[in-house]
Amino acid sequence: MPTPRTKASGFRLQYILFPLIVLLLSFLITVIFVGRLPDEVAYRFTRDGEPEAWLSRNAVISLLLLPQIAMTLMAMGIVGLIAKLGVLAQAGSASGGWIKPGKETAFMGNAFGLPQAVLFFVTLDIFSYNSYRIHLVPTWLLLVIAMVLATVAMVALFLLVMARAR
Known about the structure:
Elements: H1 17-33, E1 40-45, E2 51-56, H2 57-92, H3 103-111, H4 113-132, H5 139-165
Helix pairs in contact: 1-2, 1-4, 2-3, 2-4, 4-5
């Protein structure tokens, strides 16, 4: 007889919600911009914002979307494995198991969304430049923002772990 799922067991969509949202937004902007893109798309730019390298439209779209798909699948796989290990450990242990899917699992799964968000903005910048000749935000600024957000999140997770260890 199957046992009812507890709140902390099993795979939950919230564990990978951020990567899924970013992936869907990336698909959405691709659909919006694909008709506006030229056959040859500039994808690398000089410090002054001038195009430096070009590829075909399909190659650029593939190079921008495939890493996001891969990161979303990795997030799903890792979170699914952790959730499965947590369920198995809970079934075999009266103490509740050694891996408890919850906030840490959600953090780990959603952490994949941060590099995806950077790729999303790079995609948006490439598409906007090739469609309207407008750069949105310098890529270096996006990377600095991403590093600051990642540092804040890691410090918060560290403090959470230290508080639980007491």
